[in-house]
Write a structure and sequence with these properties.
The chain is mostly beta strands. The protein is about 0% helix and about 50% strand. Strands 2, 4, 5, 6, 9, 10 and 11 form a seven-stranded mixed beta sheet that branches. Strands 1-3-8-7 form a four-stranded antiparallel beta sheet, with no helix packed on it.
């Protein structure tokens, strides 16, 4: 059974940093693109960042570009989201997701293809 477990959320002041982790019990992890999404209260879930199966390509929403960094450690079956210069509008539940398409080489800008999801971790940024 595939499980994605997010951790690292919490309360932080505006301008601060957090690093989210997503541990995946996914036998094909090395072959799966991974993504981070978020859902703020009263809003739809939105794409934040994604990383290709090889780690060679990364993709970001415009709202987080130059502030957030996605990375992966295939030896640990873990994907990370380093969040810097946090703003109040970054407050949301953050979800990790895995692309079910093995060795997918296209780009990411949404949740199409994301077949596996974690339960989320709450990030609250106080102003």
């Amino acid at each position: 059974q595939v499980q994605l477990v997010e951790s690292g959320g919490g309360l932080v002041q505006a301008g601060g940093s957090l690093r989210l982790s997503c541990a995946a019990s996914l036998p094909t992890f090395r072959m799966n693109g991974m993504g981070w999404f978020r859902q703020a209260p009263g809003k739809e879930r939105e794409f934040v960042a994604a990383i290709s199966w090889s780690g060679g390509s990364t993709y970001y929403a415009d709202s987080v570009k130059d502030r957030f960094t996605i990375s992966r450690d295939n030896a640990k079956n873990t994907v990370y989201l380093q969040m810097n210069s946090l703003k109040s509008e970054d407050t949301a539940v953050y979800y990790c997701a895995a692309d079910g398409r093995l060795f997918y080489s296209g780009s990411y800008n949404g949740d199409y293809g994301m077949d596996y999801w974690g339960k989320g971790t709450l990030v609250t940024v106080s102003s």
